[in-house]
Amino acid sequence: MSGVEAYPILSYWHSTKPIYSCDFNHKERKSNKFLTCGGDSRIKIWKFKDTDEDSGEDASVSATDDITNSIKTHFQKAKDRINDVEYITTLNGFSKPVNVAKFSPCGKYIAGCGDDGYIIIWEKIEDSSLEQYKNDLMEKYIKIHKEQQGFFMQGQLKNDVDKIINPYNFPIKIAENFNDEYEDEYENIDDIKQLYKIIKYFPVTNLSANEQLEIYSLDWSPDSQYLVIGYMNTYIKVIDVNDSQQPYCVVKKNHNDVVQGCVWDPKNELIISMGADRAICIYKPKYTNNKITDLKLINRIVKGELTPGKQENIFAQVDFNFFRKLQFSPDGLLLVVPYGIYKNPNGDELNCCHIFHRANLLRGLNKPVAIIPNLKKRCLCVSFNPNLYKNDEESTNGVFGLDYKMIFAIATDDEIMIYDTNRLECLMIIKNLHYYPIYSMSWNSAGNKIIISSKDGFLSTVDFKSYNFGDYYKDINMEPLAHVESNKIVVDDVVNDPTEPKTINVLQIRKKR
């Protein structure tokens, strides 16, 4: 499709282990910084290089490059993509795989959790402070005799960096070394590009009670003051990032099975959790003296009203060790939920995505306002473009009656589909990026790039190089809307639609199962 490129990036990001989560830092809009975490028990920070940095070439060189690129095979292009990525640093501290890690909305913190049952929160060391640290270290090493400096630096620099990273001397557990090519060695002070220090480190569960530890979901509050986590023993917890004495604000158990997904409403009014019990729970935080002290359960949705007067299961049954990555739209008005199912007139159970309106969620209604049906495989995760765009000139306020449109992606095992909220039409389908299921995806802040992580251990990108979703919409109305009456489920039939969406196919090799 013109203006869109999709490639895997052929590099061993986490020592050939699965990449369970990826996330862009939306606060640093120009940096294109992102993180990945996975089976090697590490979180790694990367950035896409600024293409303007290499714009000093003359026209003849650029023309030659264009000709060369046109005759490159897909494999060669995918292999070259690693040159677009710059490694920044590694965050250690986990002894088992890291299932999820996210930047805070303010961009200052990173929170991660995984199979060892610990939550670790890092804070970025500001550039000015980092430069001061580096200058202090340099002065220290200059005092060492030149003949001894090389020997001294090999181990001492790493020890000094570890003290900066772990200033409170938390008893962190480091996983075994997988001989990673990106492992920090700090042989020279110039190797230190960026550092994060650990400010919180604690177990989520009672380790002495032999509870199952695995944590599968985590999300930040919009003000970056709280975390909501969901884990193996069916509980969710809200954590106060700033309270060192009693970090747990609220503990709730309203699921009957593993909590596989949590999301915090960008308007800070709702928290949604989703579990392997085929239910979503809708909570409303309660505050006392500007601190969260409780969560009020508004509704627990297991069955929904897809046809008038009939209640039926609307979420699929899956193994407990899968993630369910649901997401709110950036304006907070829509919640798109994966792992949906519905029955057609013949009684066949089909895969879909359900869309709920926040007004209905606040009123405790269990009726989706729209579905995206006829997915060939289960929908695994949802990710919204963080920007709002002006509606097309020929259209009015669209399906949801909004003055703007939003763009979102849904992922099945092997496809990514891009939709807009104006007409709920599929704009494009990207296929065959990975050999194994997709686990996570994230848009950058500019809304022109998606990164996708997979069980196969590779990361891929979708670049909307010259594809235009529309002009940015500036005037965002964040006031809650009234209850949405909808007696009709909006259905966008991807299979039978005569205007078939463009398909971007990138792998010709037979997929492994």
From TrEMBL:
Primary site of residence: nucleus
Residue ranges of domain CAF1B/HIR1 beta-propeller in the record: 214-466
Keywords of this entry: Chromatin regulator, DNA damage, DNA repair, Nucleus, Repeat, WD repeat
GO terms for biological process, alphabetical: DNA repair; DNA replication-dependent chromatin assembly; nucleosome assembly
GO cellular component terms, semicolon-separated: CAF-1 complex; nucleus
Keyword Membrane assigned: no
Database matches in SMART domains: WD40
Domain of life of the organism encoding this protein: Eukaryota
SUPFAM superfamilies listed in its UniProt record: WD40 repeat-like
Positions of WD repeats: 91-123
Family: Belongs to the WD repeat HIR1 family.
Protein name: CAF1B/HIR1 beta-propeller domain-containing protein
UniProt organism field: Hanseniaspora guilliermondii
